[in-house]
């Protein structure tokens, strides 16, 4: 399982197949389908037909599509993403800071999330900018390498522009009643080869998931924390169900 960029052919399949993050979760690395080794796969010329089923028949009914959809998810997990562990039951959340921004119309909060398993712990940071009113709001989550402060980067450095753009996006999101939340993805899984000793991987050594899958897995933890309107103190929080969350590629 590698973290190469999605081939165009697989993107075409995903575009027809919205999925839960947990669709790629698995209790192990065993599939009910038999997938041949990569070197034995036939060359694919052009885009694959998403309605051609694994047994050579074609999708004709909704039941057929449910079966095909399950096959596509397991195929992508086998060749591309790997299998994610289930969500942890609890997350420790520590509030780091909070201050009003945008002329008192919003609040910027910084938190540290910690999960523990197998005698190991992982902490990663998240920050959000939310409307001032204390109620549940829709959440936009972005994995990134920086938060909202461009001044932590020298003039002209790439990160400065990212922070400036995201701060502007947060201002527009607040105007529409949304929360914009970011977490540091490299703290979840380092964005480099040979990263199995980094981030969340040592907590779940029996899973074959890759970097992209680990980042996607962290999204659901962050969304779960944002289910609450705001976090005011250090506490252990039970992860909420997020069945309405969808990812579209």
What would you say about this model in short?
With 249 residues, this protein is of the alpha+beta class.
Q: Could you characterize the architecture of this molecule?
A:
It is a single chain. The chain has 249 residues and is α+β, with helices and mostly antiparallel strands. The protein folds into 2 domains: 8-81, no CATH class; 90-238, no CATH class. Helix content is 27%, strand content 21%. The chain is built from 5 helices and 6 strands. The chain has helices at residues 8-15, 62-81, 158-175, 185-188, 211-226, and strands spanning 90-101, 106-117, 120-131, 139-144, 179-184, 235-238. It has a 6-stranded mixed β-sheet with strand order 4-5-3-2-1-6, with helices on both faces. Helix 3 links the parallel strand 4 and strand 5. The two termini are 20 Å apart. The model is unreliable at 1-19, 228-235 and 237-249 (pLDDT under 50).
What is the SS-derived class?
alpha+beta
> Largest beta sheet: what is the strand line-up?
4-5-3-2-1-6
Helix tally equals 5
Shape: globular
Report the strand count. 6
Strand content of the residues, in percent?
15-25%
Mean residue pLDDT: 81
Rounded to the nearest angstrom, the radius of gyration is 20 Å
Stretches where pLDDT is under 50 for at least 5 consecutive residues are 1-19, 228-235, 237-249
The SSE string, one letter per element, is HHEEEEHEHHE
End-to-end separation = 20 Å
* Relative helix content: 25-40%
């Amino acid at each position: 399982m590698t973290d190469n960029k999605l081939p165009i052919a697989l993107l075409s399949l995903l575009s027809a197949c919205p999925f839960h993050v947990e669709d790629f979760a698995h209790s192990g690395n065993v599939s009910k389908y038999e997938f041949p080794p990569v070197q034995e796969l036939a060359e694919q010329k052009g885009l694959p037909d998403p309605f051609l089923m694994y047994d050579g028949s074609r999708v004709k009914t909704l039941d057929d599509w449910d079966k095909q959809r399950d096959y596509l998810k397991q195929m992508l997990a086998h060749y591309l993403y790997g299998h994610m562990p289930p969500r942890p039951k609890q997350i420790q959340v520590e509030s780091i800071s909070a201050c009003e921004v945008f002329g008192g119309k919003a609040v910027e909060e910084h938190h540290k999330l910690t999960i523990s398993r197998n005698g190991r712990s992982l902490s990663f940071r998240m920050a959000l900018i939310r409307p001032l009113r204390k109620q549940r709001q829709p959440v936009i989550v972005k994995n990134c390498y920086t938060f909202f402060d461009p001044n932590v980067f020298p003039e002209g450095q790439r990160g400065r522009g990212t922070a400036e753009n995201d701060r502007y996006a947060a201002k527009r999101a607040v105007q529409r009643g949304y929360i914009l939340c970011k977490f540091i993805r490299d703290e979840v899984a380092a964005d480099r080869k040979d990263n199995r000793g980094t981030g969340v991987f040592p907590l779940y050594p029996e899973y074959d998931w890759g970097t992209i899958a680990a980042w996607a897995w962290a999204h659901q933890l962050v969304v779960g924390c944002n289910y609450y309107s705001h976090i005011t103190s250090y506490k252990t929080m039970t992860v909420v169900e997020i069945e309405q969350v969808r990812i579209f590629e």
